[in-house]
């Protein structure tokens, strides 16, 4: 063994036996400490890009005389790897599934709801959501549904089914979301299986359907705003908020429509959360409270195009945004009737990924 | 300080750099590639060689072959485009040489991702190019040609610069000598210019092939359903499936595969250098 191999072996040994990074080893006690609702420094903010009105951020900075230091992630796993690397964010925006994972890993501070003004405007459906029993570690931020966006001026034969994605556009300009959860979830619904099915039989059928669909697709893309506004897509598997943003960017918004599919509506929600490592949790709490203010929420909804599950102004703001295509709206009733993605265990997640990989590789 | 020590001190910064930013990450990658994940998707170290078994499942073979095919096509096209350009600049550029090379390199100051997005805007169905074309236009995007085109555009400079350097180094008198010996243009090129620039071509080939074969941006943004490449597969493991161990195993196998090519290149380069000297 030469010197170089020795170094390699040494580094490998030093790492063996421990987890990679800080993999969820937070202590329960650290998460339960009460947060004092007061400015305790600038806000370190971590979100999807284009997912919160910059004017709202400016408003918060002005009101409290602090800076909001913004950074962005482009996927939940990317957010997780930054958190694991130990970067101290004050406020993050995990999806429901990732909120559940973070709570299980003792990674989120307790948020005392009774301390937040306007917290009672949150829809009662979020009183104790599946991902955060008691709703004491997260505050709901948005909700969304997955369906098909299409150009009504080009496509005439929509039937209300997921199958329209492959069959409705004679020009074949169809895109499936490049997202293994949404892809397989949709295939499960087409096959009349529950959204989260992971048994061999259901996954075999999901794979068959996706392989049947694939030759009819022009591509896989989650960049739905680009595919639709560039004219490359006539029909696209997408989230309802994206169609709002697409309509904001085109000259003929009335032609860009949304279809919830009869086989099932995958629904989801995003949350605010304060990581245990946050250095300025007090500012973070004030930030969440600021977003709960009816006028602020209403303005934010108007800018980012996703509904926020708060009674009053926020709800009205979204309804007026989509008044000529109410199908785009997501209501709490939709959340009840729809199917939510759950956290799959390791083996199930790998089984889903295997199907997705085989579909894409074939 | 002895000369030996002095030389060793000079090696230190580079050595540290390599150790910290190459050897250690590589060791971590190797360690993770034998690991597993917990239910929350966190990677755990351990001994799970089955990650490697999965790499060799038949379903991945077409992906690997496709990646190599796309990368080879990219190399050939890069060479076909760069050689004449580099030749012109090196032989006929005169005092404009530096300016011309700077102009060729200029677009590469812009990030690769941004340039690829620009292709969507230019070549989309309602894009700039189709705007001036008559009729219904052409569907450029979401085809293998778009992916190869994006790769060529992305990595062209890595071929152009070494080829230009080789041509620039060559004494033009050699070409004249070839002509004096009654060589036609083709014979002169084949027997004089090409052998003298072959090293540059080889270097360019390696510099283009390596990043192109592992690229995922072009296939993701410009490709259709049938253009999935190894880079996309690896990216999927890290950023969607949260299976870092399998992603690391794929990466390791990919690196070993490329290492073979690298070794072949270095050996041939050494032989060539010996032959010319």
Structural features, described:
The complex is a heterodimer of chains A (362) and B (277). With 362 residues, chain A is an alpha/beta fold. Helix content of chain A is 40%, strand content 13%. In chain A, strands 4, 5, 6, 7, 8, 9 and 10 form a 7-stranded mixed beta sheet that branches. In chain A, strands 2-1-3 form a 3-stranded parallel beta sheet. In chain A, strand 1, helix 3 and strand 2 (68-72) form a beta-alpha-beta unit. In chain A, helix 8 runs parallel beside helix 15. The longest helix of chain A has 16 residues, at 346-361. The model of chain A is unreliable at 1-19 (pLDDT under 50). Chain B is globular and about 75 Å long. The two termini of chain B are 35 Å apart. Chain B has helices at residues 3-33, 50-55, 61-92, 97-105, 112-123, 128-132, 144-169, 172-180, 185-213, 217-222, 230-239, 244-276; strands at 36-37, 43-44. In chain B, a hairpin with a 5-residue loop joins strand 1 (36-37) and strand 2. The longest helix of chain B has 33 residues, at 244-276. Chain B has a two-stranded antiparallel sheet with strand order 1-2. In chain B, helix 1 packs antiparallel against helix 12 (244-276), helix 3 (61-92) crosses helix 9 and helix 8 (172-180) runs antiparallel to helix 9 (185-213). Chain B is an all-alpha fold. Chains A and B meet through helix 1, helix 4, strand 6 and helix 15 of A and helix 1, strand 1, strand 2, helix 5 and helix 11 of B.
């Amino acid at each position: 063994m030469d010197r170089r191999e020795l170094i390699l072996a040494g580094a490998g040994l030093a790492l063996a036996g421990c987890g990679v990074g800080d993999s969820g080893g937070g202590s329960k006690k650290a998460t339960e400490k009460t947060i004092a609702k007061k400015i305790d420094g600038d806000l370190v903010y971590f979100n999807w890009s284009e997912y919160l009105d910059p004017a709202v951020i400016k408003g918060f900075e002005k009101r409290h005389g602090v800076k909001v230091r913004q950074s962005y992630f482009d996927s939940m796993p990317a957010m997780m790897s930054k958190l694991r690397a130990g970067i101290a964010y004050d406020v993050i925006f995990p999806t429901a599934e990732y909120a559940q994972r973070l709570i299980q890993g003792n990674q989120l501070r307790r948020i005392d709801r009774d301390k937040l003004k306007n917290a009672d405007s949150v829809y009662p459906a979020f009183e104790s959501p599946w991902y955060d029993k008691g709703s004491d570690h997260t505050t709901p931020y948005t909700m969304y549904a997955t369906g098909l966006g299409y150009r009504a001026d080009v496509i005439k034969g929509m039937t209300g089914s997921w199958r329209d994605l492959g069959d409705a556009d004679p020009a074949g300009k169809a895109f499936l979301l490049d997202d293994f959860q949404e892809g397989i979830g949709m295939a499960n619904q087409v096959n009349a299986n529950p959204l989260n099915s992971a048994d061999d039989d259901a996954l075999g059928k999901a794979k068959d359907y996706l392989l049947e669909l694939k030759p009819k697709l022009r591509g896989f893309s989650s960049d739905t705003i680009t595919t639709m506004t560039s004219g490359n897509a006539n029909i696209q598997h997408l989230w309802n908020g994206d169609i709002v943003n697409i309509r904001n960017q085109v000259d003929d918004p009335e032609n860009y429509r949304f279809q919830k599919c009869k086989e099932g509506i995958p629904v989801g929600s995003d949350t605010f959360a304060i990581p245990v490592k946050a250095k300025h949790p007090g500012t973070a709490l004030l930030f969440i409270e600021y977003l709960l203010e009816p006028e602020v929420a209403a303005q934010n909804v108007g800018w980012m195009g996703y509904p926020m599950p708060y009674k009053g102004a926020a709800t009205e703001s979204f309804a007026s945004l989509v008044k000529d295509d109410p199908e785009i709206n997501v209501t709490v009733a939709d959340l009840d009737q729809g199917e939510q993605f759950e956290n799959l265990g390791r083996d199930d997640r790998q089984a889903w990924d295997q199907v997705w990989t085989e579909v894409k590789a074939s | 300080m002895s000369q030996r020590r002095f030389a060793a001190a000079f090696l230190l910064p580079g050595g540290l750099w390599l150790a910290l930013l190459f050897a250690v990450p590589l060791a971590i990658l190797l360690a993770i590639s034998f690991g597993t994940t917990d239910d929350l998707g966190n990677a755990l170290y351990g001994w799970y060689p089955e990650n490697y078994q999965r790499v060799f499942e038949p379903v991945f073979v077409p992906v690997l072959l496709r990646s190599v095919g796309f990368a080879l096509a990219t190399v050939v096209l890069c060479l076909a485009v760069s050689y004449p350009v580099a030749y012109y600049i090196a032989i006929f550029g005169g005092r404009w040489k530096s300016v011309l090379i700077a102009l060729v390199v200029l677009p590469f100051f812009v990030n690769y991702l941004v340039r690829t997005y620009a292709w969507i805007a230019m070549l989309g169905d309602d894009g700039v190019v189709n705007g001036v074309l008559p009729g219904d236009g052409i569907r450029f995007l979401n085809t293998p040609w778009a992916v190869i085109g994006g790769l060529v555009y992305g990595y062209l400079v890595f071929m152009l610069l070494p080829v230009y350097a080789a041509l620039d180094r060559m004494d033009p008198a050699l070409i004249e000598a070839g002509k004096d010996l009654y060589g036609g243009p083709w014979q002169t090129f084949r027997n004089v210019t090409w052998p003298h620039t072959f090293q540059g071509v080889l270097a360019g080939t390696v510099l283009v092939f390596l990043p192109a074969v592992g690229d995922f941006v072009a296939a993701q943004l410009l490709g259709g359903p049938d253009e999935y490449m190894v880079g996309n597969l690896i990216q999927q493991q890290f950023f969607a499936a949260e299976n870092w161990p399998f992603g690391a195993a794929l990466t390791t196998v990919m690196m070993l595969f490329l290492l073979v090519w690298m070794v072949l290149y270095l050996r041939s380069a050494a032989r060539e250098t010996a032959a010319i000297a």
